[in-house]
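Exercise 7. Given the components listed, write out the predicted structure of the assembled complex. Treat all entries as one system.
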Amino acid sequence: MTAHAHRIIAVDTYDIRFPTSRELDGSDAMNPDPDYSAAYVVLRTDVGDGLEGHGFTFTIGRGNDIQVAAIDALRPHLLGRSVQELCADPGSLNRDLIGDSQLRWLGPEKGVMHMAIGAVVNAVWDLTAKQAGQPLWRLLAHAEPEWLVSQVDFRYIADAFTPEEALALLHAGRHGLAERETLLLERGYPGYTTSPGWLGYSDEKLTWLAQQAVADGFTQIKLKVGADLADDLRRLRNARAAVGDGVRIAVDANQRWNVGEAIDWTNALAEYSPHWIEEPTSPDDILGHAAVRKGVAPVKVATGEHVQNRIVFKQLLQADALDVLQIDAARVGGVNENLAILLLAAKFGVPVCPHAGGVGLCELVQHLSMFDYLALSGTTEDRVIEYVDHLHEHFAAPVEIRDGHYAAPLTPGFSATMHAGSISSFRYPDGAFWAADLAGAEDAL
Amino acid sequence: MTAHAHRIIAVDTYDIRFPTSRELDGSDAMNPDPDYSAAYVVLRTDVGDGLEGHGFTFTIGRGNDIQVAAIDALRPHLLGRSVQELCADPGSLNRDLIGDSQLRWLGPEKGVMHMAIGAVVNAVWDLTAKQAGQPLWRLLAHAEPEWLVSQVDFRYIADAFTPEEALALLHAGRHGLAERETLLLERGYPGYTTSPGWLGYSDEKLTWLAQQAVADGFTQIKLKVGADLADDLRRLRNARAAVGDGVRIAVDANQRWNVGEAIDWTNALAEYSPHWIEEPTSPDDILGHAAVRKGVAPVKVATGEHVQNRIVFKQLLQADALDVLQIDAARVGGVNENLAILLLAAKFGVPVCPHAGGVGLCELVQHLSMFDYLALSGTTEDRVIEYVDHLHEHFAAPVEIRDGHYAAPLTPGFSATMHAGSISSFRYPDGAFWAADLAGAEDAL
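Answer.
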């Protein structure tokens, strides 16, 4: 570094969409035809080292342009900012973005505006880790506990969890770090696969993919449920027959039910021993999840991919509403808020099993689970990262699955970088793929 | 009507911003410099009667363009739709908008996307009431209970409240309707004023405005608090001296505090007998509000202007977290969701005192409170609509305050229509006001 302070000089945004709805990949009871998409942001600097910060919000098609507009609205907070200060303290940006009082009105801390903050904050962490020459999981796991605590916003969670408690957890987590890191590098972090379970797939495809999942080393699969009970029973029976009793089968209703329905439907599936019921009802319904949990035990209750922020997670934990907490790397306010959520989960003793899939969510969230293992939970027991084999080919450092485990990524950064060719092909509506596709659709009229 | 079905032929949107930050109007502990704004939508038809449906989302400046983009994303659901079917059943549109699975991902049912749905749904209700030649409050109060129930989405609230219970409440509400309507037309609906209480005002301005409020017939005023305790104590003492003991003084922290701070700070203000503490903490913190309510009694707890949807209101009621429920006309999914919230409040016996102010919120929300009085609560005791004397001059049918009461509006519609001249002046950035202002700012550089 010279005495001259280097700056963020550009915040480039892209509306990237993949036509996944054409194969019914990703179809569930609430989302029949998703086109997996990313509102993508690239931070560029004048450092001259060629390093950029990449981040994104995952969406499922329409509205990805709104998400891009929300990221664009954050540009004034970034342009001209010192790269060194930003990477030394990403939390300062996080506070500034959440504290922009005019933009805050659009949430607060939820929905489009909050996901935009998450994309930008994650891009800063990507840049920070690249500059440090470390994969993000390793940077976080070796960071000073005091500094990690300084990255957490305790506003609205201080009644349940204090900075002092966070510090104590992180200091305790240092014991055995080196041994766990060796194990992680050897063995990876356990995954589970949702690939067999999409609602749009035939019974034959489900059976074949479930058998394949076991052959690939997975010890848990997941099935989408909630559209039709008779179908669910048949699909669950087929899946159980395909995988045997030694493999866990989670089921996922994607918010389809009211509280009473959730209890009745889950209990109707109980003979096939589902491991957890995921998103049984609205992600906003803390008390509803607590009631479902009581009503479906011993089936576990899992949720989180649509939980808007740390404040709702705090209450889900306070209300004993969860057996499994599912963080998402790109819905809340980025790494800083996910640190808060991982710390809350550790305090309340609830295992974290991240949501992934979509576009690049596996790539991101593995870093957070690996940090959790190394620095907080100390174990991978009852902890698995979702895996779906979609769209990884578009990433510069795609996840690598070995024997049902996520291999620890070694490439510096947050694994968020998409290939330039993928961006140029799938930019909507003017990328090469969409331009040809939309022209074809017009010709067909 | 002819046999030809008339259609929605245009959905026009406008980014309208008023430079309110220059006078510190609207300044509070979280929002130091709001520029009151509206993401405004006009539905046009081919009926030929000149009637349009107007609606908007209120924002406080930056990000109003994102909100307009979100309304634009809903256009395909409206264009070509039968006007007759739409106005006969606005709930059908409400369900379609909330059910758009790709757009739903951006919430679900919260933040930018949900407020956009609210703007569009409210515009349909404006058109519906205009076509019926009725102010909306009167249309709703005289509507068949069965039809009103059909307008409510019970998803995610059915564990607390069923259609049968809603129907019973509405049938019971029919008794005495005519007498209450006569009283309402004579007397209006009680208001309270926040005009004296903005944080940016001097002590002299506060005292003068508080005395003026009493002279104007208001029996309640509200002060913003939460930035500095010594200031709050002084301002509350001045206000109490100005209004005497017979006038209620509510205080409003605009989400400034954590749970513990909220309890301590409110109790420190108790010697001046605040009537309620509003938004003591995050609007997402149901369990936190319940703890605050226990900790500050007999001061009442009020919240709701930032509560995202019926699901969170349901839980605030289930958790005994509220003494006063504050609906907002333009944050949730429009009239249909506010019907659900008013019905929930009626079932739980919690009085509704709407949030208003901003741009046009007084104009809208009076209709909902008057419906509540006529058809549900049957009383105005302990019920007041917020009043702030900002920006009413931009509306075609501005609210009218007489002796501290909102006069029942008689103009057909939802009172959402802004003057064409106001729209053309305050469109951002190309309206006459902003074009001149931005050119002046450039000249000054």
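Discussion: The longest helix of chain A spans residues 111-132. Chain A touches chain B through 60 residues (CB under 8 Å).
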